[in-house]
Amino acid sequence: MTGTPTTLADVRALDASDSLARFRGQFALPEGVVYLDGNSLGALPRSAPSRIAAVVENEWGQSLIRSWNDHDWIGAPARIGDKIASLMGVKAGEVIAADSTSVNLFKLLGALVRLSPGRSDIVTETGNFPTDLHVAEGLADLFGKRLVAVATEALPDAIGTNTAALVLSHVHYRSAYRHDMKAMTARARDAGARVIWDLSHSIGAVPLDLYADGAELAIGCGYKYLNGGPGAPAFLYVAHHLQAEMVSPIRGWMGHAAPFEFKDEYTPAQGIERFLAGTPPILGLAGLEAGVDIMLAADQQALFGKAQRMFALFAALMAERCPEFRLASPSSAAERGSHISFAHPEARVIMNALIARGVIGDFRAPDVVRFGLTPLYLRYEDVWDAVDALAAIMASGAWRSPEYARLGRVT
Fold it and tell me: What domains can you pick out in the chain, each with its CATH number?
């Protein structure tokens, strides 16, 4: 089928020929719900409850503390990190699963600015995800640096001889705008600086090849497209050639070269393990591994291709049936990730009304309704049904009900 589908029959034909359709059955999706918020919290893999239960009952329950050795709990952060590395185009031993995105950003940024003591600026963009801005600002205060936040188009000119580090989201959380990683990394390198890439809206959503793009440092979360569960452990990436130079400012015992010798003096571990801090969250890692294993079985190019076809379908249907919404995501597939956003002055209450009808997207201040396009478990017909529900809400004026104005949803 060529062109944008125009009928429900066309949409169902796309689903019937979808090579990724087999993955939908691997997720627990509530009946009667169209889930378009997987870019905020991924759906539950059906394998996750049994895997977590096995860790609880068979390992923790039977082997107790022996599980650190008998079931290799101690190796889980590196083992899962190696799996995530293959989704990023980097090597084993360069990624570790640990802590949260915020904590990992603090670790990498603190280690990075120490490498450039004579440089004063940490550069980022205005409107970046708040945790990245807040962590960068806090670390700048601690290290006596200056946070320089500029508009996206001004970033190249903001990078100079005073730049100690850049902190950028590869895919923007609100608009889905995607930076040219290769070009921005090269621009930083020309100025003698390095970029920490936040891949939270990229990993599992767009094909990544950090080696090809020259990227050396990255962080990301495990609970969006990797479907690791609420608050799942995050990950960080440090290229092999930088590992010996960088020491985390959070010098936890699990990052020690010999953690079980219990020495007072800190000696960092030789490899990526030096970026561990506290005891690994084994139950969370078990859930994350279940999600990552499913993602590893999927072709990343096929995922991105399907996401872009869904984007085109969504945009065309909205233009036809909900013209009062303005597309707030880039129209070019080369410049976006795997979600679609629309602007409307009453976005918050409209999204509340839509969620009440069983179509779950989310609202992002000040005026954006956002929909995650998660090809592992989303159907083209789900996109059709979502726009259908939104058009009905707008035509009837149902979103004006006072109950929706009172709701303050986390999503």
Answer: 8-31+299-406 (3.90.1150.10), 49-296 (3.40.640.10)
